[in-house]
Amino acid sequence: MGDISKIIRAAAGKKRFCSAVILAAGSGRRFDDSRAKQFLEIRGESVLIRSVRVFQESELFQEIVVVTRAADREGVQKILRDAGMTKVTRVIAGGDTRQESAKRGFDAVNPVCTFVAIHDAARCLLTDDMVDAVMESAFVTGAAACAQRAVDTLKRTNGAGDITETIDRENCWQVQTPQVFLADMYRAAAYLAEKDHVLATDDCALCERLGFSVRLVDCGRTNMKITYPEDIVIAEAILDSRAKKPEDKA
Ligand code: CTP
Ligand code: MG
Predict the structure, then answer these.
(1) CB within 5 A of ion ligand 2: which residues?
(2) pTM to 2 decimals?
C-alpha cells in the first residue's frame, strides 16, 4: 500500500495550489469528422472552451495547462485568449497516447502545485458542482475521480464474444474525469509508469498500481465524454435541460 498519509501530511504543510491539466491532443478517430472533436461547437461554444471554462471559473484553481496537438498549438492559444481564459499559463504539445499527453501536461504545471486535476477536454458537460465534489474528496483522501455507477449488467468475454463471467454490478463504476491527485503522488505514478513501460487509459490506474487508494465521486451520467457523432445530440439535450432548470446541474 502506498503511504498516502505521509504525502498528505507533507502537502498539508504547503500552501494549497491546484492546477488543471486539460487534455485536448487527441485526433478523435471514433468521432469520424475532419475537425478534431475538441473544436466542434455545441450550442455556440466549443468542446474545448466549455471544458476549460469550468476551471477558469472555479475559485479552487490557480492555473490551467492545456495540452493540444503540436500543429494546433498557436490556434489554440488564440482561441483561449479570445475566450478570456486568463488562468491558462501554458499550451503545450501532447504525445501519441493520452497517458503521454497527461505526463507532458503535468510536467508543465507550476512547481508549487500541490493538487493536479487531469481532465479530458472531450468531457465538456462537467459542472462546477462536480468539480467542487471531486476536489473536496481529493483534499481529504489525496486522490479522487469523477465516475458513474454502472447501469448495465457487465460481462467479461473470451475475446471472441463468448461470456466467461458475469461481474457483480453493485460495486462497478465507469470512471470519468477530472481525476485529481496530490501532485507528489501523481509525479511518482507517472514517472514509474514510464519507467516500467505501463500504459493505461486513465490516470487512476497509474496510482492504483502503486497501491494508492482513489475515491470515486458519483457525478452521474451527464458528465459524458464526446466520443461518437451521436453524442452531440445527447450533449445538446443535456445542455438544453440545464438551461431550462439552472438549479438542476446534474
Ligand atoms: N488525448 C490527448 N492525447 C492523446 C489522445 C487523447 O490529449 N494522444 C485527449 C483527447 O483530446 C480527449 C481525451 O484525451 O480530450 C480523451 O481521449 P478520447 O476520448 O479517446 O479522445 P481521442 O483520442 O481524440 O478520440 P479517439 O480515441 O476516438 O481517437
Ligand atoms: Mg483516444
Answers:
(1) 26
(2) 0.94
